[in-house]
Design brief:
With 196 residues, the chain is an all-alpha fold. It contains eleven helices and no strands.
Length: 196
């Protein structure tokens, strides 16, 4: 895209019709235009799509700075999706400490990761074909969606700065988990989204 990249909600038929965050990642990565590029773990791509479609226009402009990191956020960790569930649930608990559903999701994610580690140890997982590792990882994709919706409910009304901050924090942490970083290396959401 010539000039400044402008992201929009939803799916697009091609680059000339616009693009969402993950469609832009596919373009920058030199992959076929689409919402789930191979360079990004599919569960993370799904989470990024949810974030793209639920932030304000101001916060969506800040998502462009995440494109490079998302373009290298590929993981063979079969427990990554459960890590994303736990991350979203912990963010919900940081905003609403008495949220019983989020507390259950944290416990369920920890249990699922332990079981997955026993049933599919890293040495065995490394020998599986990539499609099989991805399939195992996506078994909890619906849990990610539920965890994100709980975070939305705990973060303020649509279009609010508090919701934007929560969604950017969610995405930054999810990218860091996928890349194996201890903490997001990106600018804090508070610096990127100004209060209206």
């Amino acid at each position: 895209m010539a000039g400044e990249t402008r992201l929009s909600r939803g799916a697009h038929r091609d680059e000339s019709a616009g693009c969402c965050l993950m469609e832009h990642v596919s373009v920058v990565a030199g992959e076929p235009f689409g919402m789930i590029p191979r360079c990004t773990h599919p569960a993370l791509a799904g989470l990024a799509i949810l974030v793209n479609d639920r932030v304000s226009d101001t916060a969506r402009a800040a998502l462009v700075s995440r494109v490079a990191a998302l373009g290298r956020a590929r993981s063979d960790d079969p427990a990554l999706t459960w890590r994303l569930v736990e991350h979203a649930a912990c963010l919900t608990l940081s905003r609403r400490p008495d949220d019983a559903g989020a507390a259950r999701r944290v416990r369920r994610a920890a249990r699922a990761r332990r079981v997955r580690g026993r049933v599919l140890p890293p040495a065995v997982a490394a020998r599986l074909p990539g499609w099989a590792r991805t399939a195992v990882a996506l078994l909890a994709a619906d849990e990610v969606v539920v965890a994100v919706h709980a975070l939305l409910a705990a973060s303020g009304p649509p279009g609010s700065t508090s919701r934007d901050h929560a969604l950017l924090e969610l995405l930054d942490g999810a990218v860091a988990l996928t890349l194996g970083d201890p903490a997001p290396a990106l600018a804090s959401p508070q610096e990127e989204v100004s209060t209206p």
